[in-house]
């Protein structure tokens, strides 16, 4: 009942914009079926999770907003105990690596978007997922550091969740273009950095990663994959798809949402991305980023 075919999905009906501030009726039903979510459960579980957090040694000094608690509850399908464990993991991780979660720079972040290191698609997949494209070969380390890339991921993932409840319910899909011609990227594909990538995105960010699509395979990436695959859970491995050519993406994404360079029909996304970024990086929005998770991190630097 809740499956939609990407090849027949239509813009404005099954295909909705990335920036949508409400959850349409179809996706409310999806949240009820897949996440066991009801209005009553949101209230009851949020209250219980907040009470447990206040009594927890790791979480007691964090002033969580209700919104961030709902995000972790949705991530864990309203299993309050698992949501609590994930919050503990997230807080410990953030406090251990505070430099990745504060002091965001608009100038540096927008650079990655304009150079197409990371692209946010303006339309969602037919199943409601937000879609990101990461093109490794466009990442110039002398212009955009590893630390800045980590901050970019934190900012985009957390704001995509906080600003859009549709993303909380439906999750993300990521397309990785792993064509790499520069061997300089090999120096950052270390086991430690691979672990940080997996642990940070899969166990700390309150999002649901519904698919990872890898295109334009390369020898450099194959080397990194030998390391990276050992960190992935069996559940996530089943959601990783390797495509011999971009045309394989059409089995999973509507043609209308994919860029022309990836067998789709969509044009350049940069203007829309920059507008979104300016909005989510205002002082007021950054102050609310993370719903209490990122408060006072400068003191730990």
Automatic annotation (TrEMBL):
MF annotations from Gene Ontology: phosphatidylinositol bisphosphate binding
Record InterPro entries: CRAL-TRIO_dom, CRAL-TRIO_dom_sf, CRAL/TRIO_N_dom_sf
SMART domains: SEC14
CDD domains listed in its UniProt record: SEC14
GO cellular component: membrane
Domain CRAL-TRIO: 106-270
Span of the signal peptide: none
Protein name (record): CRAL-TRIO domain-containing protein
Organism listed in the record: Oedothorax gibbosus
